[in-house]
Amino acid sequence: SLSDRLAGSLKDLRGKGRLSGADIDAVCREIRLALLEADVALPVVRSFITRIKERAKGAEVSAALNPAQQVVKIVNEELVGILGGETRRIEFAKNPPTVIMLAGLQGSGKTTLAGKLAKWLKDQNHTPLLVACDLQRPGAVSQLQIVGERAGATVYAPHPGTSIGGGDNALGITAADPVEVARAGIAEAKNKHFDVVIVDTAGRLGIDEELMAQAAGIRDATQPDETLFVLDAMIGQDAVSTAQAFQDGVGFTGVVLTKLDGDARGGAALSVREVTGRPIMFASTGEKLEDFDVFHPDRMASRILGMGDLLSLIEQAENVFDAQQAEDAAAKIGSGQLTLEDFLEQMMAIRKMGPIGNLLGMLPGAAGMKDALAAVDDKQLDRVQAIIRGMTPAERADPKMINASRRLRIANGSGVKVSDVNQLVDRFFEARKMMASMAGRMGMPGARKANQ
Ligand code: GDP
Ligand code: MG
Predict the structure, then answer these.
(1) 260-264, 342-346, 348-352, 411-415: which range is least confident on average?
(2) Does the structure show a pLDDT above 60 at 323?
(3) H-only helix segments in 279-403
(4) CATH architecture, domain 1-84
(5) Which residues carry a binding-site annotation for GTP?
(6) pLDDT for position 63
(7) Average pLDDT of span 102-109
(8) Residue spans per domain, the chain
(9) Is 219 near ligand 1, meaning CB less than 6 Å away?
(10) Are strands 98-103 and 196-201 parallel, antiparallel or unpaired?
(11) How much is the pLDDT for 450?
């Protein structure tokens, strides 16, 4: 992942407290690889990195963050800005019905999305009508009917109520004209006062002129308020050419990214946003109706970067610690000199940021520590605090001196069992070791000092 690779390049960075050209280049090289790994298109990566370098050069020096962290922060801000710069919600027509047309390749998730959108709209007290204009594939109409039923939404199909079996003879459905069905669907919505019409269309496996012509025909007949281009995030580098073909052939007002539950890093989001200029409006994360949400640029940015929510952690840390405190603490952590007194102070500072589990969960790589984290709760921390308060300043400064008789005294003084004190002291030594090595990996200022 990027954080692992950054850790490698961080070892070479020396804490100058400001961003040098070499620092910026080193980090940008890693960011570039991370973007390519996330399937961002090469030209998009190039122009993006150029902008980052410009911004980084003019960046103010941060006392709390090292140069690499500063560049990463800029990259993240820039990514979020691009992905969400013009984030907008569906614009509803002044005169209902609002028409939403779905376009995209076969299998991209249009029909599934139709159901998700219908449910989402119903939850907001809209009355959506689903219109089945995919007459290409046997079974497409009944798929929409099933999806519509699950969403509790009405479906308008060429032969309402008819179950359309697969096979060669699809009950004359293939003879119907999708453009006519679309037109009739809009009329139905007006007659029966549905306030939104969702038009499901046919897709092909690849770009196809006939398909584009049909989609354009449906567009002209329905005059959609929104045309959503549905894009499978797993499609990778093909995202750009596919999006361009649909932009030229049909045109669209927004993008829906699907199959984000897969392992795609989602670089398609950045590519499509950059190349078409159209906002990503929704994200689909599974086959069920509920696996759907409005698009969150910040989540997508950290997914593309592969850094967990490291940045929000940095931001929170910046808010809570003053810079000098952070430097001091980091130096002690990095060099393994942390005392129980520091530990207590840090713990109090960290607790100001919210429940400890949430916080630790934001660290990249923390997934592997999940079980350990699950065991940490705030009550336990209260006890830890009580135990440390029961120690003398000398004991806090040099925990190695805490022998058996001292442990007994501390336990009695703080109202816990000796085994609790033992556990705390043991864990402290473990944590000190782990934090020192983690600080080294993440390039905290203290770790650099310790290495020098
Ligand atoms: P269409 O051809 O564009 O209408 O695509 P469909 O809606 O029929 O979806 C194709 C397949 O992808 C179906 O098996 C869906 O269940 C599945 N699918 C759609 N969206 C998602 C998603 O977000 N995640 C996952 N895992 N599967 C999805
Ligand atoms: Mg479909």
Answers:
(1) 348-352
(2) no
(3) 297-305, 310-320, 323-334, 340-351, 356-361, 370-374, 378-389, 393-397
(4) Up-down Bundle (1.20)
(5) 104-111, 200-204, 258-261
(6) 63
(7) 96
(8) 1-84, 98-305, 308-452
(9) no
(10) parallel
(11) 37
The pTM (predicted TM-score) of the whole model is 0.69
Q: What angle do CA 341, 346, 349 make, to 5 degrees?
A: 130
- Is pLDDT at 173 greater than 90 in this prediction? no
pLDDT digit string (tens) for 267-311? Answer: 999 999 999 999 999 999 999 999 999 999 988 988 898 775 556
Q: Which two tokens stand for residue 155?
A: 């479906």
In the numeric block, the tokens 């219109």 are attached to 131
Residues with CB under 5 A from ligand 2 (ion): 110-111, 134
287 lines ligand 1 (CB under 6 A): yes
285 lines ligand 1 (CB under 6 A): yes
33/17 Cα distance (integer angstroms)? 25
Among 42, 112, 32, residue whose Cα is nearest residue 271: 42
CATH no., domain 308-452: 1.10.260.30
- Please give the mean pLDDT across all residues of the chain: 81
Asked if residue 152 lies in contact with residue 119, where contact means CB atoms within 8 angstroms, the answer is yes
Pocket test for ligand 1, best of 112, 231, 263, 280 (most atoms within 8 A of CB): 112
Above 50 in pLDDT, residue 97? yes
| HEC secondary structure over 229-260 | EEEEHHHHHHHHHHHHHHHHHCCCCEEEEECC
**Topology of the domain comprising 98-305:** Rossmann fold (3.40.50)
Report yes or no for ipTM above 0.90.
yes
Residue 225 has which token pair? 């308020």
Phi, psi of 304 (to 5 degrees): -65, -40
